[in-house]
Amino acid sequence: MQVLTKRYPKNCLLTVMDRYSAVVHDMEQMVMIPSLLRDVQLSEREGQAHEGASDLYSYFIMLKTIRVEVDHGLLPREEWQAKVASGKAIEAENEAVEREEAQEERISELDLEAQFHLHFSSLHHILTHLTLKAREVTRKYQEMTGQVL
Fold first, then answer.
1. Which InterPro entries match (predicted)?
2. Cβ burial, residue 20 (10 Å; 0-12/13-18/19+)
3. How far is the C-alpha of 141 from the C-alpha of 32, rounded, in Å?
4. Which of 17, 18, 139, 144 lies at 20 to 30 Å from 6 by C-alpha?
C-alpha cells in the first residue's frame, strides 16, 4: 500500500488529492488482470444490477485517467477534446459548459471567495466519492480473485 508522505490538515484539498492518488495507485497495483472487471457491476443490491450502470472495468479506467490529471494537471481543452473519441462525450461536455456558464451567471453576484468555496467544496466532495469508488473496485477485485484479507 502506498503511504502518504505529506502531512496536511484532514480536510485540506491537498490531503484529499493525495489520498485519492494513493488509493488509485493501490488499486492499480492490486488489479493485475483488469479484464476480469468487465461486466461486473460495482454494487449489486438485492441481486439486481442497474440498467446502463458502468461495470468495474469502466470505473477502473476512469479512476486511472482522473488520477493522471490529479497528479499531472489538466490537459489543455483542445487536447482533451481531441482525445475524446465519441461525439456524445463532446456533446455532454458542451452541455456541461453551458450549464456551468449559466450557473456562473447566477453566481456572478457572489464574490470570488464564495465562488471559490463552491468549487472547492464540490471538488472535495467529488474526490472523496471517487476515492470510495476506487476502494470498492479494489475490494471487489480481491473478492473475485480470492485475495480478501
1. Lipogen_MT_Stabilize_sf, Spot_14
2. buried
3. 9
4. 139
